[in-house]
Amino acid sequence: MWDEERPAxxxxxxxxxxxxxxxxxxxxxTREPEIHELLARRWxxxxxxxxxxxxxxxxxxxxxxxxxxxxxxxxxxxxxxxxREDAEGYNRVLSTLADxxxxxxxxxxxxxxxxxxxxxDHVASPNRHAFYDLGQAVANLTVDATSLDLYIHQMxxxxxxxxxxxxxxxxxxxxxxxxxxxxxxxxxxPPAARTRKPLADFVFSGSWARPAPLALETETQxxxx
Length: 225
Hints:
Helix content: 25-40%
Structural class: alpha+beta
Radius of gyration: 24 Å
Strand content: 5-15%
CATH superfamily of the largest domain: NADH Oxidase
Number of domains: 2
CATH architecture of the largest domain: 3-Layer(aba) Sandwich
C-alpha cells in the first residue's frame, strides 16, 4: 500500500531503500517457515546411547500414542515393546531387521514393533484407515519422545512374516514398522542438511497437481527429515 503522507525519498535514499527492500524480499523467500520447535528438533539418528530409557518415560510415550485420533475411535494400533532388560524379546525383534538396520539398531536400548489392526470391531468390515491411524499414534509417540530428549528411528526394513511368527501375531493384524528408541549418543544436531519437497509439490487446490496459491509463495525446501 502506498504511504501517501511520507515525503518523497531522494535518489540516494531510494537506492538504499530499494536495496533494503530487495534484501527483505530475498530473505522472506529463503527463510524457512516456522514450525513447532519439537517438530524442528525431531530427526532420525543411528547412534544411540546405552543409557536405559526409564519405565516411566516409556509409559508416557505409550500414553501419547494412546491419545491419537483414529477413525471411529477404533484405535487400531498395538505395540510390542522390547528393552535390553528383556534380552529374549529384544533379540527376537532385532532378528527381524534387515542386516543394514540391525548393524546400528542393536545399539538402541529399546525396540518397538508397531502393528495395525486391519478390521473394525463395531462392524464386520476392513478398516482402510488402520495404517494411517497407526501412523498418527506413532507420530504422537515420536513428538512426545522429542520433548523428553529421546530419539526414534523408524524402520520399514524388517521381515514382517518373521515378526508375525516370533510373536504369534494373529490374522487380522499387520506388523508395519520397527522403532529404535533411546537417548542420543554424539552430536545433538543432525549431521547434514535435510531437505523436503516444496509445498507446491503436494498442496493442491482446484484439481490434482495444481499447486495452491499459498504453496507457491513458499519456495524453501529445507526441513527436518
